[in-house]
Amino acid sequence: MDEETKRPRDSSVHILLIGASGSVGKLVLEQALSRGHAVTALVRNPDSLDYVRGKPASENLTVLQGTPLNKDDLQKAISHIKTHPRPAVIVTLNNTAKSAQDPPPPGQCPPHLQYDVHKLLLPLMSQHQINKLVVLQALGVGSSWPNLALPIRLAVKYTSVHFSWDDHADVDRFVKAYGDDNDVQGHIKWVLVRSCMFSNGPAKEAHCYGEDGVGLPWFPSISRASVAKFLLDSCENDVWDNKTPVVANNAPKR
């Protein structure tokens, strides 16, 4: 009997998944359903969910069309999970902005996509007493910056890639400050997962290098499936609550 089969029914979570059509988000969706969790996915285009296409409808999956940049759409999505005994939110958005223009040119991300989403999301979570938030971020955010490989640091500093890292950094600061200063309805337990460079392949053990990435090898990586598993594990348990774990498949040197 595998781990998912042995998991007690009352340990299931109802997850609002923001970013379900992305390369990591679709794996979170697939793994969450395989674990017996309920998922509400808020997506701009439901047809973009490859996992759903060609599969029979699942009573554990609700797909809502909308954008997390719209408060009404977020409110509707929150209403789907708020009555569950264990509601939670997982965010796997990826900002691919190429310029500071806001609103952006057609077909491009706004430069503050993730920050703007979290500014809407956290007050709604507080209002409905949803106190678990797991966010996919990146190595190099916040205190992990010195442990990002030098070539990538240079790319972040001198190319448009910096919009993504800047957005992550804004979310990092906002989530931490919100929990300290503004969460009057109940403390939100957040996990900001600082992932190393993505690779393909199956889910493997995700090794944690603290909150800063000290001891990481040169150019560490982690499979998207491993990241998805770690996000779900962090949603189910409290091991990394209010922390910023740096994760890689590379095992620490002894």
UniProtKB/TrEMBL annotation:
SUPFAM superfamilies: NAD(P)-binding Rossmann-fold domains. Belongs to the avfA family. It holds the Pfam family NAD_binding_10. Residues 19-237 form the NAD(P)-binding domain. This is NAD(P)-binding protein. It comes from Pseudovirgaria hyperparasitica. GO terms for molecular function: biliverdin reductase [NAD(P)H] activity; riboflavin reductase (NADPH) activity. InterPro entries: NAD(P)-bd_dom, NAD(P)-bd_dom_sf, Polyketide_Oxido-like.
